[in-house]
Write a structure and sequence with these properties.
Blueprint lengths: L1 H6 L11 H14 L41 E2 H18 L6 H19 L5 E6 L2 H5 L14 E5 L5 H17 L5 H20 L4 H5 L14 H15 L2 H10 L16 H8 L7
Antiparallel strand pairs: 1-2, 2-3
Helix pairs in contact: 2-4, 3-4, 3-6, 4-6, 6-7, 6-9, 7-9, 9-10, 9-11
Catalytic activity: Endohydrolysis of (1->4)-beta-D-glucosidic linkages in cellulose, lichenin and cereal beta-D-glucans
Protein name: cellulase
Enzyme class: hydrolase
């Protein structure tokens, strides 16, 4: 899923390669990963409704979102990062996406609508839906799955700064992507991003410990969470231009124990450097 998201940033075609087709298929991929009640506009007709009771174990509606890779678990850490990358693609290249811009925005909204559900309750962030060990022992279509749909969540007592900060980044980036076409929705996303970032920063800790075996070894945070906090702050600075977020990035980027040339769902420093380079160089 993550690699497909990054493909969307390719916008200028070589004469021998049909990048327009690649862009369309990259975005179409996400429709095949959709969970929940599918809309009439669904283009992949072989995918049907699935996981319509997600979140019922914690009395929170967690229907929707994206399945991860080839399994039926909804891992929110990489899902949020993928949503951030989709949004970044639209922010940078939306004006040259042509007819695919609407499909890209639909893909982002499918993620952000779900992330809004995951962060609807103050001081609680739903971190994951689906018991990964049981799921990986029983490969089946999501329409047919009968493995536990356990919900895992973060609180003040059991925080997860990396995951919460990544959700904040996704919502902030998406607020920029929707600013020109849906200002009301953009404002909702930005307000939630601010609240979730504050939660991530105020109650620091790794979701490795809070979610435990449900997160590891599948999507452990192998670095500390400071790069994720700086990443979230960088996107909030880009969305708000408030100097406090810029100061946070400058003050905390050195605390991120991450290879500066590595970029992905777990390591964010290279992406931060690119993101904020238009404002200033990080020392």
């Amino acid at each position: 899923m993550i690699m497909v998201a990054m493909m969307i940033t390719i916008t200028r075609a070589h004469s021998s390669i049909n990048y327009k087709e690649a862009l369309g298929k990259s975005i179409l991929f996400f429709e095949g990963q959709r969970s929940g009640k599918l809309p009439p506009s669904q283009r992949m007709k072989w995918r049907k409704d699935s996981a319509l009771s997600d979140g019922s174990d914690i009395r929170i509606n967690m229907v929707g979102g994206y399945y991860d890779a080839g399994d039926n678990v909804k891992f929110h850490f990489p899902m949020a990062f993928t949503t951030t990358m989709l949004a970044w693609s639209v922010v940078e290249f939306g004006d040259v996406m042509g007819s695919e811009l609407k499909n890209a925005l639909d893909a982002i909204r499918w993620g952000t609508d779900y992330l809004l559900k995951a962060t609807n309750n103050p001081n609680l962030v739903v971190a994951q839906v689906g018991q990964p060990n049981a799921d990986h022992n029983c490969w089946e279509r999501p329409e047919d799955m009968d493995t536990p749909r356990t919900s895992y969540y973060l609180t003040k007592e059991k925080p997860g700064s990396e995951l919460s900060a990544e959700i904040a980044a996704a919502l902030a980036a998406s607020s920029i992507a929707f600013r020109a076409t849906d200002a009301s929705y953009s404002n909702i996303l930005l307000k939630r991003a601010i609240r979730v970032f504050d939660f991530a920063n105020k109650y620091r800790g790794s979701y490795n410990n809070s979610v435990g075996e449900a997160a590891c070894p599948f999507y452990c945070d192998y670095n500390n969470y400071m790069d994720d906090l700086a990443w979230g702050a960088a996107w909030l600075y880009k969305a708000t231009k408030k100097p406090g977020y810029w100061d946070f990035v400058k003050s905390n980027i050195q605390a991120a124990n991450v290879d500066p040339f590595e970029f992905g769902w777990d390591a964010k420093v290279a992406g931060i450097n690119v993101l904020v380079s238009e404002a200033s160089c990080l020392s």
